[in-house]
Design goal:
With 286 residues, this protein is mainly alpha-helical. It has one domain. It is 79% helix and 0% strand. α3 crosses α8. The longest helix is centred in the first third of the chain and has 30 residues, at 2-31. It is globular.
Length: 286
């Protein structure tokens, strides 16, 4: 059930990304200065007047709801990577909308992303186990997220003019990986009756990380192709979430050695696919 719901969430993610990208592109043309250094407050306000962007936002909201429901049915390392289905759908949609055909390297990169994640999920589906999420685990997740946000804030403040799409894509993927982990942690603690002040604080942090990740996504749409953005979100996001789930939450604590090796190899292939797509996608050079 969790896998099926996560699959539906991936469909909504793909459609939402296409609509949002269309809205951001129009705003970039009408309100941008050509610098592409990150969306300004004026541009963010203009997005609210774009029907395509609003529709895309609603669809992404549905994708998030689907993901949260799926997390209630299955371990994080099973649910989170399934969103890669959005990459395939987005690639097909964007190729038709823009009339820009993907070259062999781009298609190969997409196959690497999808194949790597597919192998990862297949292994996780038969080896992952869930555990109670205690105060120590949740505190560790919040501390690591705080360090990541500070690091990205410093990089954004000093290197903004030199940032490419991949910076925003990886930033959004990392943040959303923590968002998914926090969402799973909060849901688990609520179900087990452990809702306390730390859980409430985690909800606040979750909302803040979601907003910052959303800004990175919209900026990435203004400087990169939608399937490149989705590739980052559906690969970097789950890989970050999986690392946390394995190291902090112990969801792979009972996995045999062959499964651990499979996780590492499949993850490496998928991440390599993201960087390959970022380098060779036709729209990156337009």
């Amino acid at each position: 059930m969790g896998i099926l719901i996560a699959f539906l969430g991936g469909v909504f993610l793909a459609l939402g990304a296409q609509f949002q990208h269309r809205g951001v592109s129009k705003v970039e043309i009408s309100h941008g200065n050509g610098a592409k250094q990150g969306l300004s407050v004026r541009q963010l306000q203009a997005l609210l007047a774009r029907p395509s962007w609003v529709i895309g936002t609603v669809m992404l909201g549905l994708a998030i709801v689907m993901q949260l429901i799926a997390l209630a049915f299955a371990p994080l390392i099973v649910v989170q990577p399934i969103g890669v289905v959005a990459l395939v759908i987005t690639s097909i949609l964007n190729a038709r909308v823009t009339a820009v055909r993907l070259d062999g390297r781009s298609i190969g990169a997409i196959v690497m992303c999808v194949g790597g994640v597919a192998v990862f999920v297949s292994i996780a589906a038969v080896t992952a186990t869930e555990h109670r999420i205690g105060t120590q685990q949740l505190t560790i997740i919040l501390i690591i997220l705080g360090a990541v946000v500070v690091a990205y804030a410093i990089a954004f403040a000093f290197l903004r003019q030199h940032m490419r799409a991949i910076f925003y894509i990886i930033g959004a993927g990392v943040l959303y990986g923590f968002v998914a982990t926090l969402a799973k942690s909060v849901l688990t603690r609520i179900i087990t009756g452990d809702f306390d002040w730390l859980t409430f604080f985690a909800v606040v942090v979750l909302l803040g990380a979601t907003a910052l990740g959303g800004y990175f996504v919209q900026t990435a749409y203004s400087v990169g192709a939608p399937e490149l953005v989705i590739a980052g979100l559906t690969v970097v996001d789950p890989m970050v979430a999986v690392v946390i789930a394995v190291v902090v939450l112990g969801e792979a604590s009972q996995a045999p050695l062959w499964a651990v090796i499979g996780f590492v190899l499949a993850g490496a292939v998928a991440i390599a696919g993201v960087f390959t797509l970022a380098k060779h996608h036709p729209q990156t050079h337009r």
